[in-house]
Amino acid sequence: MKHLFLGLLLLSTISLTAQKQDKIEMAINTQLEAWHKAAADADFDAYFDLMTEDAVFIGTDAEENWQLDQFKAFSKPYFDRGKAWSFSTLERTIYHPKKAKMAWFDELLDTQMGICRGSGVMLLDGKEWKVQHYVLSIAVPNENVDELTQLKKTHDDALIKVFRAN
């Protein structure tokens, strides 16, 4: 009887932990969907309110490593025109260690650039999950890598010289 009780206690603990994990992942998923929707709706304040004060956004261009204030300045004209960018989620995986106030994720997105991959870090800021670090990249099929490499060779060579000179 004692073993049965301990087994039931263990199963209920595991079940409660899984439910809590599911709620956390649902909350993170909701925030990410709201963040992408705010961009699609060109809602500047809603978009940036879903980012931490020390957020970083890494764009698809090698020179796009934006601290939050820089990213706001870059993005503002797009939002002001009423059309920022529109990303819809194709799939997302969220990783959240137990009791952590941080999570990370990767996602595939349907965008105006075709399929892109996003990945990032979410931070629990008070009671709300916010984007702290985000990396966006254009997904390139392996069979097109050589063609793409040739297409960007001149630009990359010049940029490599700049980085190596610093």
UniProtKB/TrEMBL annotation:
Pfam families referenced in this protein's UniProt entry, alphabetically: SnoaL_3 (PF13474)
Coiled coil: none
Keyword RNA-binding: no
SUPFAM superfamilies: NTF2-like
Domain SnoaL-like residues, every copy: 28-141
Keywords: Signal
Segment forming the signal sequence: 1-20
Domain of life: Bacteria
Record protein name field: SnoaL-like domain-containing protein
Species this chain originates from: Leeuwenhoekiella palythoae
